[in-house]
Design brief:
mainly alpha, 123 residues, globular, 4 helices
Length: 123
């Protein structure tokens, strides 16, 4: 899962940089996915440890970061939708929706992996 985390981190960093350049360098908050990507990249690299306990702990931290990366943008998109009754696909909403989807995919893949490892240990 370390390699998957690294790939998703690169994807988040790309999203952050692309939207930062699309906004004309005027919206530093558009770099939030980039910073989440850096954190996940570091965690993914640390998860390549030989120690199973360390790897397990780091991947649990990574999935927690990804869960936060899913929840906060998703809530902001939901609030924007509730206020306007339609989601206008402005740059902010697009980026938050994209970040939320990417982080959700990583969370689901990690949870699936955790379940598979647990079943393998038990059986």
């Amino acid at each position: 899962m370390a390699n998957v985390t690294i790939r998703f981190s690169v994807l988040l960093m790309a999203v952050g940089l692309i939207f930062f350049f699309l906004t004309g360098h005027k919206a530093p908050t558009s770099l939030i996915p980039f910073f989440f990507g850096i954190v996940l990249l570091v965690l993914g690299l640390l998860a390549k440890s030989e120690s199973e306990k360390r790897r397990m702990m780091i991947m649990h931290i990574a999935v927690t970061v990804a869960l936060i990366g899913f929840i906060f943008p998703a809530v902001r998109v939901a609030i924007a939708w509730a206020r306007a009754h339609t989601v206008t696909m402005g740059m902010v909403i697009r980026e938050e929706l994209l970040m939320s989807i990417i982080c959700l995919m990583l969370v689901l893949l990690c949870v699936r992996s955790f379940i598979a490892v647990r079943k393998m240990r038990e059986g």
